[in-house]
């Protein structure tokens, strides 16, 4: 995404005038404020506001546990303790507000995370721009043969070219017709009335870009990141999650490090998996049949543990 | 929407075998169970399950208020009292699960109601059908000239024909290309791999049909109905809300009657509006300038009160 | 509530070091930050953090409605429009975090507002202080004879004295025994082990003070204030709501003014009430029998409209 | 808890009249409906209504994944797959409504689970009964010396007797005074007015019993059970969780079995823990220093893995 000079100027203007506040300030996050981090071909994420920092998490926890937290000597240790024991409410005490520009099919996945506040650009009120997500060639993947919701190899040569040509021409034709139905392409004084915007929009494909303000607390944001920054997430939402994660890391470095250790990099084991690992640690060789796991569980288990 | 004979048979089969239960039963709702109520050209709503009835609301309220509810002599009076005084939790004690088939742009409005549970058909896993919403000619409305999010007159003659032609041909071309990219139209052993479903879907316009299971409690359903069965709601979601409202009326007739009186048919007044009405009741003539209201408020006020 | 010198010093220290931020700043709210506003005999509310201001509401709305908002000429008009039409999401874009000290029976009412984040002092981990709410004599009210959940006249003379004596002595005895069971009153080297804190706390009455951090968005806070700053709310929670409302008024003055006009000072009418008012405006005299309302509805209706 | 003959009769009457329904029926849950399962000395849980069964979970998942679910051959495999991959929405399609009688201090922990619907008996409207939780001697535990929120050894002999005596006499005195302030103990025509119920209740300790209707979906119920049926949960809430779990097992046996395997009996590992286990599996001996874990993490890790 290339910002227009007007947008660049607006961002610089918003960043030009720091004001004094008595609130908690995260230097790392101040550096991100208002700046657009490009995602995909026309999208971005921008941090528009935030509340709290690492010490706000600690402060909230100490209200809860009172003297009970004194034995944890420092902030990092306490934050790691909270993350390890699934104490979610202290992380809810931080909040962030993002401005996101994203394709509609990504927005549809994203909105399934309900515990957040959203203001989306309304195509009932206003006209959408002619901007569509067209994948880069290296992201044009074939359907996976083993995973119903996954991707396989990258499409090559002619097939890739054909797909790109379809996506581009269908998007442009749809947009031409959208404009045509709205009547905005007829400035010649014709009697055309123009279809209502709330109807005309239905002609636009799911790769058209929309935008929204999305506000979420840190606990729910971590949940979002765990699912969407995961390798199994669809590439087009994963890159948004990764761009957000990079900001979160600068915002609350201690909490993010705990999240990386306990969630992103960790593993969840079933009772069966615990039993198999214990047998292996005791020197036993355990195969699929002896594990009691289904074929799918065993495949996932051995992918991690060999 | 016309059901296929297979679907009709499935519904009749699901309705053929009543089983005994000790739970609260609503005869009015049993008559709706599983049956598809057609909405728009290919959509429907179906009640798939429900919990509770009017007496469940009363029962929950009596737990809360104990002896305090005895002075309300009957169920109807108590339900009206609860509705009038915004006691929401007793209405939350009823729950309904719907199967809905609807265009994507309607689904996008609908999902903004967050306090509900949803399982939507996933176009990452599975292939969507060739079904698109094409408005009936009488619903092809022009953009309203006074209301940014509303409709004006119905499009006539050639313009209507042109719009319908666009919507149909764009939808079909998009679907042809969707299939083509998926590679399902090439059963000839060609080397084509087929684009991943999660990518190919982005070519489909917002009038393609999707479907979901949607589960919601009665309090939140009333909130949905108040906003979406309202004359200001977009026609295409309003008809869904109306079809659901007809089922709710049979399910919990006392609660629905109270909802109609206090919410659908009622009015909300600002402090300024209360003051104007009191002055009018005292015989005074109050015009816009003397009301203290903005132009928009005054227009809405006089639309109701003259 | 009188703060200890240590607490006063801590607050002044937190207020002593403004730092630069690029975020939206509300001067009105900065003046409140960290300061304790006394409520009841030992309670307080303190603003610990906030996000956004009036212009953040407007900004979020303009993202949603795009060019559609241009016809509303100014921020105040747009905020009033949003409030009038129940557009809740722009108000959700502001957030506030409070530190509250309050009696347990007030906390139990408060927590019923679920859309908020809470960290409460845990009496499993830590020992509660000897602080109990004892009503001022003018708040010692008799049970209302007409309202099951309301108060009647103030208790007088001997009865008031007797009640105060009971509340004080029961609270102190309960706390003495709480300490005794915890074993903290036996520093004489006795072999007593001390009951687990999570059990000992069960001896404490509902007027003991607890404290929590409570974080909520502005939309849900307005909902809380509408119910709890209402004359029908119990006095002991209403004074908290009023103290919070005073801060909100300084934080987002335009939004608060709209809230006062459309919610606090407004009225909700049923379809029946609309019909009666219209008949009255047309010169007709309508009595209870002709209104179609129940006794209770009629009483509430005439309380406002005469 | 011993039910009164009236209550027994009411339950039997509610169970006496099965009615036909077309909804999903769980035989296992029908056997529980309305019956009170005793918990603690005066508490109980009763299933009052439910929606859905194991096949409702499967049905919802198949709507989402369409043809994508066909490769999972049976219901059990699909339910295990959903649980393993944290697909929560199909489990949200089941709902249960419970009637629970419980001490106030347990209710205060319980209500922290926000995603549920509650109607609690209101002591503003009505008078509470003289029922208090008094622990059985074997549950009178000392404060743990190593765990700030845990229990240590059982109190013995004189100290136990002293604690029980305090709890009983304080509860009774508090209730006598509650009644006295309400004025219900003076039927002699005295001029006493009686303190408002909303005030008098503040004298009652946290072991007084309250009751509520609690309605929750299966996904959120599993979350509740994972935290509250856990050995680290306070005994007094754990016994409620266990009583509920026993009903859930009969209601949705396949989902419950998956929950037991993947949640209750499973384990969560941090990235550090995964690394240590891999080194151990490779034959290496890893001690605390080499693990990179904190003292607390290492203690928890070795508790499971040796």
From TrEMBL, chains A, B, C, D:
Belongs to the thymidylate synthase ThyX family. Homotetramer. This is Flavin-dependent thymidylate synthase. Keywords: FAD, Flavoprotein, Methyltransferase, NADP, Nucleotide biosynthesis, Transferase. Its cofactor is FAD. FAD binds at residues 89, 112-114, 120, 217-219, 223. Residues 1-21 are annotated as: Disordered. The keyword NADP applies. Catalyzes the reductive methylation of 2'-deoxyuridine-5'-monophosphate (dUMP) to 2'-deoxythymidine-5'-monophosphate (dTMP) while utilizing 5,10-methylenetetrahydrofolate (mTHF) as the methyl donor, and NADPH and FADH(2) as the reductant. It comes from Pseudogemmobacter humi. It is an enzyme of class 2 (transferase). Pathway: Pyrimidine metabolism; dTTP biosynthesis. The gene is thyX. Binds 4 FAD per tetramer. Each FAD binding site is formed by three monomers. One of its GO terms (molecular function) is thymidylate synthase (FAD) activity. The active site is at 228 (involved in ionization of n3 of dump, leading to its activation). It catalyses: dUMP + (6R)-5,10-methylene-5,6,7,8-tetrahydrofolate + NADPH + H(+) = dTMP + (6S)-5,6,7,8-tetrahydrofolate + NADP(+). DUMP binds at residues 109-112, 120-124, 201, 228. Pfam families: Thy1.
